[in-house]
Amino acid sequence: MSKLQNKIALITGGTTGIGLATAKLFQQEGAQVIVTGQSVANVAAAQKELGDAALAVTADASKLAETTKLMEQIRAKYGRIDVLFANAGIGKFAPVEQVTEEMFDAQFNTNVKGLYFTVQKALPLMPDGSAILLNASVASKKGFANGSVYAATKAAVRSFGRTLTADLVGRRIRVNTISPGPIDTPILSKTGMPAEAIQQMKDGMAQSVALKRFGTADEIARAALFLLSDDASYVLGVELFVDGGLAEL
């Protein structure tokens, strides 16, 4: 039997990379998928790729009014959310001397505030016994140069994974955190770094991974499926590193 049969699944940041790979897998497993993205072009492309059975919505996670509108749209069309993957996030990397207030605020507004209020505003639509997955990063545990702000946002996400679990356990809503290692996705091209610097960063990170390679979006999607399905019915409050051994080896 499909692992998400007849489930309503919301994946924020679901139009590219990890989010889109997860949406495709969840569809295969029987879910009605809703994905969001900031870019109108990416949303349209995702809608085409996922087909008419899916719903792709343009929504900026950092803007609470857009999140509220999204939840109203889901309530009107589907009535509930059984599975929430709070995946939307951005990364901007620079030495501490070059970090601007704009870079700082953009990352905290999307990765921390946006994620938190996505969960808060989704909760009235989530039945008891549903499941939430937060997307953090191995960066919250490792001291990567040029990533001070990004890493701090992901450490906050990991903290939410614990505290929201405590808040919601009475409703049997499982909250878990997934922390990917280096994954080859379009987010790397959006860091603001020159192409040469991005390639150098990728080469260096790949060598620091025990498996000596970047992971794929599909590998994260499969782990997300486990944590959001009934296969993980006795798993809550954990952080699952899907990182080729980077965090521990």
Describe the structure in your own words.
The chain is an alpha/beta fold and 249 residues long. The chain is built from seven helices and seven strands, in the order βαβαβαβαβαβααβ. Strand 5, helix 5 (148-168) and strand 6 form a beta-alpha-beta unit. The model has no long low-confidence stretch (mean pLDDT 95).
Offer a quick outline of the entry.
This protein has 249 residues and is α/β, with parallel strands linked by helices. The protein has helices spanning 17-28, 40-50, 64-77, 101-122, 148-168, 195-208, 217-228, and strands at 8-11, 32-37, 55-58, 83-86, 131-135, 174-180, 239-242.
Secondary structure layout plus pairing:
Elements lengths: L7 E4 L5 H12 L3 E6 L2 H11 L4 E4 L5 H14 L5 E4 L14 H22 L8 E5 L12 H21 L5 E7 L14 H14 L8 H12 L10 E4 L7
Parallel strand pairs: 1-2, 1-4, 2-3, 4-5, 5-6, 6-7
Helix pairs in contact: 1-7, 3-4, 4-5
Structural class: alpha/beta
Helix count, DSSP H or I runs of 4 or more residues = 7
Low-confidence stretches: none
| Percent of residues in β-strands | 5-15%
**Net shape:** globular
Query: Percent helix among the residues?
Result: 40-55%
| CATH topology name | Rossmann fold
Instruction: Give the ordered list of helices and strands.
Output: EHEHEHEHEHEHHE
What's the pLDDT, averaged over the residues? Answer: 95
Number of strands: 7
How would you write the strand order of the largest sheet?
Answer: 3-2-1-4-5-6-7
What value does the Rg take, in angstroms? 17 Å
Beginning-to-end CA distance, first to last residue: 36 Å
The number of domains is 1
- CATH homologous superfamily - what is it? NAD(P)-binding Rossmann-like Domain
Major sheet summary line: 7 strands, parallel
CATH architecture: 3-Layer(aba) Sandwich
Name of the top-level CATH class = Alpha Beta
